[in-house]
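Example record

One chain of 93 residues, shown exactly as stored in the release files.
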Amino acid sequence: MTLHERFTAEILDFDKESEVHKICATMRNIMGTKLRRRGAVIAVSGGIDSSVCAALAVRAYGKNKVLALQLPEIDSARNTQTRSTLTSVPTFN
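Predicted structure tokens for this chain:
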């Protein structure tokens, strides 16, 4: 089976909200029991990966317990740093 055959549009047919809930519950559990912390500092570049991490952290802990540290990647598009400030997460440059 080729890569193209394995990854079709049907791969995205799942309960996304349920998965977000599971991820956030796991994040809260790890943070509270293993790390013994109440919030997170997320390094954001303005790209998809760090944006998703920031969004999940806000869902898991609340926006008052998440700080976004802006670390733009040199090869990123010029507007990624501007876009990364559009979230409700407090940012530090």
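Notes: The beta strands are 40-44, 66-70, 91-92.
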